Amino acid sequence: MAEERVERHKGVDRLFHWLTAAAVLTLMTTGLLPALGVWKFDWVVIHWSVGIFLVLLVLFHTIRALFWQKLKCMFAMSPAEITGKKVTKYSVAQKLMHHAMTLMVLAAVITGCLMLMKMDTPLWKRDPYTLSQATWGVIYVIHGAAAVSAITLVFLHVYFAILPEKRMYLRAMIKGWMTREEEREHFGTPQ
Amino acid sequence: MDLFRVGHDVYGQRVLEGISWNLVPYAVGIAAVVIVAHLIWRLIRGPKKGAQRG
Question: Where are the alpha helices (DSSP H) in chain A?
């Protein structure tokens, strides 16, 4: 008999996740490797183009989360969840990872958009004099801090995703479903 | 350990240029420490029991 499957992530959310992952990894590669002197190449155009793509993904996710998903599902965290007595769709660890990634991406995206003022693109001309030198320094620091923290977060995210006991979450993010048995294992009680 | 990259403008004044790239190995190190600590904790803890759904 075929095992019963339970939908965990819709196709559009999985597509968003993997496109965001590709964008973040591309931005880390094109931003950090030349800065560290590991790989010198003409990275600027790729970096800002993918950065704008990430901005669009963030806007899409924000609108979808606000109007089509339950914010409580990701942002509510009860004492019972923290003490491990209760498990909702996302565990406390998964929520914390989401919030850390959100902070990192928002910091990178907002400062990255400001940094676009210093660039000539087909859509606008550069204007680096709108902000003071000191303000630009703070913007660069925040953008760099987001990039450096992304290294830690990506390593941890990948590590927890490939753990054997967490493999069902990885499969759910690829194929969208977990089995009824896995759901029971995750939540502790039959649904 | 420097936290920031600092340069000088055309007038010789110190200007902030960004975060120090020397922090990158620390970012990798923090991830490695957490992963190793979790692996050890996982070995000690053994199989995890389920919780109750809310």
Answer: 11-36, 44-67, 71-75, 79-82, 92-115, 133-162, 167-175, 180-187
Q: Does A161 touch chain B (CB under 8 A)?
A: no
Give pTM, 2 decimals: 0.88
Shortest Cα distance from B18 to chain A (angstroms)?
A: 4
Give A9-37 pLDDT, tens digit per residue.
999 999 999 999 999 999 999 999 999 98
Note the pLDDT tens digit of each residue in A62-117.
999 999 988 888 888 888 888 878 888 888 999 999 999 999 999 999 999 999 99
Give this complex's ipTM: 0.84
User: Which residues of B touch chain A, with CB atoms under 8 Å apart?
Assistant: 4, 9, 15-19, 21, 23-24, 27-28, 30-32, 34-35, 38, 42, 48-54
Which residue is it, tokens 């089995």? A179
Q: Quick one: tokens of B13?
A: 């004044």
Contacts of B2 (CB under 8 A, 6+ apart): B20, B22
Helix (H, G, I), strand (E, B) or coil at A110: helix
